[in-house]
Design a protein that fits this description.
The structure is a single chain. Helix 5 links the parallel strand 12 (220-224) and strand 13 (241-243). By secondary structure, the protein is an alpha/beta fold. The protein is 24% helix and 26% strand. The chain is built from ten helices and 18 strands. The longest helix is centred in the middle third of the chain and has 13 residues, at 177-189. One of its GO terms (molecular function) is zinc ion binding. Residues 17-373 form the Enoyl reductase (ER) domain. InterPro entries: ADH-like_C, ADH-like_N, ADH_Zn_CS, ER, GroES-like_sf, NAD(P)-bd_dom_sf.
Length: 378
């Protein structure tokens, strides 16, 4: 492309400070350095983790930044040493890298990687180094991706090449939420055929967890949410029951225990609320119940009585659904193309990048499952 090797000026939604609307700005995106890929972002989802950074954690070292981490695009150019990608490839940038060389990447037990922003900067959710500038100031790259920009630069170990037939305005959702929920059920919980499951929180991640439970063969899937409007949506993805905790005077764990002869086999917390995490654990059957923490948060301690675990329950966490990122995302894209994974059904709104603040407001008010923003024409 004619832009290769040059600074690109493009539009991006910049978070100048926490708890304030994003501002559409013209930013400069430097060419990729060694082992980096510059990507034209075509579409991006708006995920609750973007809102978490902006409105909840509000870490002082995390601004100014370009948010967004659930995108898909096309390779514009590559830096020295990049052999895996070429101009024109369809790709999904990844917020978890897969270097394939560190002890975590070499272990089948985890999808963590010692390299990339996540290894060192969970609090600020970005690294100091960035290829973005705006008005003479360095702008941080959120979660190593920054998909609320027409162009971004990502290390090749955090990019997945995907099937050229994949529609980018759908598969962008596999960059975070859908893979996270689906994998939490299939990879982390390891939901078993004919089991009973409960999923707490029916945003995109929770609905994807419901879909994962169904794919794994669960016979009963209880969807739990305080929004009654989520009930019908949950059934689309495979839920057999819907429970609204507000409809009951008893604790939700007691309600589920009575429904399931002592508790569910698997529970997944997809909210990011420490109280709900405890509820999910206590909803599991003793002896073998497994509860997985999926919702992203790092603000408060969680608590439970030791007897819950002594009695044989397992409490575990899941990051990006346990998928090794560069391997797992192309598999999920194939699953979508083979009609084994739903994506279209998650998308309730389509907007442009310039409408990003409207999309954020929809999510804050619980009025959407996923909004997809068109960022650049293909």
């Amino acid at each position: 492309m004619a832009t290769a090797g040059n600074v690109i000026k493009c539009k991006a939604a910049v978070a100048w400070e926490p708890n304030k609307p994003l501002v559409m700005e013209e930013i400069e995106v430097a060419p990729p350095k060694a082992n980096e890929v510059r990507i034209k972002i075509v579409a991006t989802g708006v995920c609750h983790t973007d809102l978490y950074h902006l409105f909840e954690s509000m870490h002082k070292d995390g601004f100014p930044a370009v948010l967004g981490h659930e995108g898909a695009g096309i390779v514009e150019s590559v830096g020295p040493g990049v052999t895996e990608f070429k101009t024109g490839d369809k790709v999904i940038p990844l917020f978890i890298s897969q270097c394939r060389e560190c002890r975590f990447c070499k272990s089948p037990k985890t999808n963590q990687c010692e390299k990339g922003w996540a290894a060192r900067h969970y609090d600020a959710m970005s690294v100091e180094d960035s290829r973005f500038t705006c008005k003479g100031k360095k702008v941080l790259q959120f979660m190593g991706t920054s998909t609320f920009s027409e162009y971004t630069v990502v290390n090749q170990m955090a990019v997945a090449k995907i099937d050229p037939a994949a529609p980018l305005d759908k598969v962008c959702l596999l960059g975070c939420g859908i893979s996270t929920g689906y994998g939490a059920a299939v990879n982390t919980a390891k939901v078993e055929p004919d089991s009973t499951c409960a999923v707490f929180g029916l945003g995109a991640v929770g609905l994807a967890a419901v879909m994962g439970c169904k794919a794994a063969g669960a016979k009963r899937i209880i969807a739990v949410d305080i929004n009654p409007e989520k009930a019908e949506k949950a059934k689309v993805f495979g839920a057999t029951d819907f429970v609204n905790p507000k409809d009951h005077s008893k604790p939700i764990s007691q309600v589920l225990s009575e429904m399931t002869d002592g508790g569910v086999d698997f529970s997944l917390e997809c909210v990011g609320n420490v109280g709900v995490m405890r509820n999910a654990l206590e909803s599991c059957v003793k002896g073998w119940g497994v509860s997985v923490v999926v919702g992203w948060t790092d603000l408060y301690d969680f608590a439970a009585r030791p007897i819950q675990l002594i009695a044989g329950r397992t409490w575990k966490g899941s990051l990006f659904g346990g998928f090794k990122s560069k391997d797992g995302v192309p598999q999920m894209v194939k699953g979508y193309l083979d009609k084994k994974v739903k994506l279209d059904e998650f998308i309730t709104h389509n907007m442009t990048l310039a409408q990003v603040n409207d999309a954020i407001e929809l999510m804050k008010q619980g009025k959407c499952i996923r909004t997809v923003l068109s960022v650049s024409p293909q």
